[in-house]
From TrEMBL:
It comes from the Bacteria. SUPFAM superfamilies: Thioredoxin-like (SSF52833). InterPro entries: Thioredoxin-like_sf. It comes from Parasynechococcus marenigrum (strain WH8102). This is Thioredoxin family protein.
């Protein structure tokens, strides 16, 4: 399972969560991919995943985390987390999604 984080360089909440989100995802056994919208190469690579969940980007949170299998191929989205939260809550919610 991959956790793809869609965020922006100018998002304070995204930056705050970057202090622990990748470590938590990896501790829970997921591969973590960070996609900054300003990183055109990474964004192009994972754009199809984001647009499948948010065709016109309405309703996205900052940051948005999508749980995906085979993100570079015939991917499937298994869940999402949106917005900022404390480390413990992020671990609990991500763990529940990964277990489900």
């Amino acid at each position: 399972m991959h956790v793809i984080k869609f965020s922006s360089e100018d998002c304070g909440t995204c930056h705050k969560m970057s202090h622990y989100d990748a470590n938590v995802a990896e501790e829970l056994g997921a591969e973590f991919v960070s996609v900054m919208l300003q990183d055109t190469e990474a964004y192009r690579k994972y754009r199809k995943v984001l647009l499948k969940q948010y065709p016109n980007k309405e309703g996205m949170g900052w940051p948005t985390y999508l749980l995906v299998t085979d993100p570079e191929g015939d991917f499937t989205i298994h869940g999402e987390l949106k917005g900022g939260m404390p480390k413990g809550e992020f671990r609990t919610r991500l763990g529940a999604l990964l277990a489900g």
